[in-house]
Protein 1
Amino acid sequence: MSWKIEHRKNRNNGRKAPGQQAHDEAACGRRCGVFRLYRHYVSILLRSAMQYKASFLLGAAGQFLVSFNGLLGLLFIFARFSSVKGYTCEEALLCYGVMLLGFSVAQCIARGLESFPFLIKSGEFDRILVRPRSVLLQVLGSRFETNRLFRILLACGMLCYSLRHCLVVWTLQKAAVLILMLFGIIALFVGLFLLGAAISFFTIEDGGFLNVLIYGGSEHGKYPVDIYGKQMLKFCTYVIPYALVQYYPLQYLLGRTARWEYALYPLGAAVFLLACYGAWRFGMRHYQSAGS
């Protein structure tokens, strides 16, 4: 009898207190609810886009051709020159492919932030504020760029070709650096979209000058940053950290440097994203209703 009592005590000691258990379950439910809600937003937008299949296919084809035109420009240059500042065509394709893939994914995720000024001017943002869900999640879920999917396929094709033909000795460590580079690019551009939305709290406009940094950066990102000169490299390192997610890890992947810390530079994009999120929170605190 005593061993049964002791066994019951040990089993109860392994349990959490009812309040703590309920708190953990609620926190887990909130986290799952966030992803479930965002997935629901995306599914609605995808179904909506599929109602007009011809429009979807034409828009996707247009985006594909824009990116394919950039690819042709790169190939024409390397058809005339065997290398550009020491970079071969395959190395440039690796750079362009990972940049295009990261930027396209960021556009799919953060397209709602780009159209955020319209939410403020139309008063729709006030309706979002009174809903019992994350404001940022609702803004992100307001739009999803389905026609960027063909650009993602093109970027994946470019990456597959460059990974096969680029003279890089691939190891698990270098594969991890490439993945970190990709996530760094996504974080960088999502941060820029978030910064543009934060500026809209004060200007009621989209901060159009950021389009130069966003779309100009993605366009110039098809080549390693150092081909544009040392001053541009400094700007892209200390102001808008394109070089942290593109140039420095690329040097490590291509074996142009033995500095292993270059492989960790894409983590700087996470710091940049947090700073942009801080700007968003600052704008939220100072937001005044659009009124009637």
Note: Residues 228 and 266 are 20 Å apart (CA to CA).
Protein 2
Amino acid sequence: MKNIKWIFFDIGSTLVDESKAYEHRIKDTIQNTDITYKHFCNLMIDFAKQGKNGYTEAANALNLKTTKWHSEDEFLYPDTINTLELLSEKYKIGIIANQPLGTQERLRKMGIDKYISLVISSAEENVSKPDLKIFKLALDRADCSPDNSVMVGDRLDNDIIPAKAVGMKTIWIKQGLGGLTMPKNKNETADLTVESISEICCYLKNSNIQG
């Protein structure tokens, strides 16, 4: 990947660890039922491996109502800040994410907004991933051509497939439930696959992605 100017990131399970938030949500969902936490988690994982929304599918399969997401339980991965700091010295950093209102403020509270030049959030833009419109909107606002950009995300369906469809380069970060999915074809196969966000800097240093 050459001549990269912008690197766009998803938020959940990419920059932010959602494990505690999922734990809280699952416990709320199974409250006052005879369904165990382990059973729900195993079912959720099985659906995630199929490339589906694990939580929603598990709740539906068990005839349970979905409960609210606890964003207060989210926290940055240990290597997020250092990685964004290093990348922002050479590249423009953007966000393309399905998030509720107030994304910019949450990024500020997390201490990472200073590294981010553009935030495209589904709630503010009234368009959600995997709709190609949100990716095209981000590229338009960034004044960046697709081949000069990279999309980094944990989900093949929401991040990798649509980003490739608009011509962006892609990096699949195998964190969270999305990392359990197995690519089935070329459209689902990212240009690079990493286990953590800090690995991106290693690829850049080794010139596998060149700015």
Note: The beta strands are 6-9, 16-17, 75-76, 92-97, 118-121, 149-153, 169-173, 192-194.
